[in-house]
Design brief:
The complex is a heterodimer of chains A (144) and B (189). With 144 residues, chain A is mainly α. Chain A contains 7 helices and no strands. In chain B, 41% of the residues are buried. Classes of the chains: A mainly alpha (144), B mainly alpha (189).
């Protein structure tokens, strides 16, 4: 029964092979390419690729704004004018350290808002995990 | 290797090289047009559907993950577009009459067909395929002419694998009947 079916499959395949695919009219490809010129490019947008990363950063900024309601980092007197690159880096580093210290000291005062911190860490982890699993090379995943 | 060519060009388009899409159009245009033509039965409409499908494929190329062959992914777009088109136009599919099962065996049909010259065989087979209902006509073309697997056809049409198998079985029977009646007419004329 199966052999019969296979034989007939082959027979149909053989006779169908005498037929040809239909061909579109001349200039088919050119017309499509002309239409594509007015289309936006389907380039992988970095905003889409790094959507979770951007979300995590946005969540981080939101938390910073919660901790420093007036965005007090701008209160720091960072001397930049007339300093060398090394001094400038040193100034920024020391300012950053002071700012980080203040941030950690204020975490304790957040009360119920403190849970935003593990949430933002979780979002960050999800973003990293998503990037790792979605970075499979397409060639390897394609069949055939 | 051929599929790797497709993937290479898809990645090239995604990297910003729009011109690489011309390779994909050139390679798959005949099959895309054939699928559309088998379903809508109008060259003008089929060409429009095939063009729209290529543009749609270009626009949504980012969503092609490479889980299936590019051709399978593209033909699915074409198939769905053509089916939607026929539904919009409320075009009735041409249904074959339920024929009385003849006493001619399938082997005899093929023997008779073999006795005809290639051009006439091709004409009869084409006519027989075109007389099948639109979706079946597309399936038989995909399976026998383009040699897609049943899995590929399942992905293209959205039918289950077992449904595709059943359809192919029925299509074979219909093709035998159709070929037989056409050969009888040919012999009379």
């Amino acid at each position: 029964m199966t052999t019969d079916k296979n034989n007939h499959d082959e027979a149909i395949r053989r006779i169908v092979s005498h037929t040809r695919l239909d061909r579109p009219s001349e200039g088919f490809t050119a017309r499509i390419m002309d239409r594509l010129l007015v289309q936006p490019e389907p380039v992988k947008k970095w905003m889409i690729t790094y959507q979770y990363g951007i979300l995590a950063i946005a969540a981080g900024i939101a938390i910073m704004m919660l901790i420093f309601p007036a965005w007090t980092v701008f209160d720091f007197d960072v001397k930049m004018a007339g300093t060398s690159a090394a001094q400038m880096a040193g100034n920024l580093l020391s300012t950053g350290l002071v700012w980080a210290g203040q941030m950690f000291s204020k975490i304790g005062t957040l009360g119920k808002y403190a849970y935003f911190i593990p949430v933002s860490v979780a979002i960050l982890l999800v973003s990293v995990f998503d990037q790792v699993i979605s970075r499979k090379p397409q060639v390897d995943t394609a069949k055939g | 290797m051929k599929e790797q060519d497709d993937i290479f060009h898809v990645q090239s388009v995604l990297a910003g090289n729009t011109a690489a899409f011309a390779f994909l159009v050139e390679k798959h245009s005949d099959m895309a047009f054939t699928i559309a033509n088998k379903i809508v039965r109008s060259r003008e409409d089929a060409e429009e559907i095939a063009q729209d499908s290529f543009v749609k494929a270009y626009q949504s190329l980012r969503s092609f993950k490479g889980d299936s062959k590019f051709s399978t992914w593209l033909y699915r777009i074409v198939y769905n577009a053509a089916i939607s088109h026929t539904r919009r136009k409320k075009q009735d599919f041409i249904q074959l009459d339920e024929r009385v099962v003849s006493d001619t065996t399938e082997d005899e049909i093929f023997e008779n067909l073999d006795s005809l010259d290639t051009e006439l065989q091709s004409k009869l087979v084409n006519e027989a395929i075109n007389n099948l209902p639109a979706d079946e006509s597309a399936i038989v073309t995909l399976f026998y002419l383009k040699e897609n697997t049943i899995d590929d056809i399942s992905q293209i049409t959205g039918l289950s694998v077992s449904n595709v198998k059943v359809k192919l079985f029925r299509i074979r029977k219909k093709l035998y009947d159709e070929l037989q009646s056409k050969m009888k007419l040919e012999t009379v004329s």
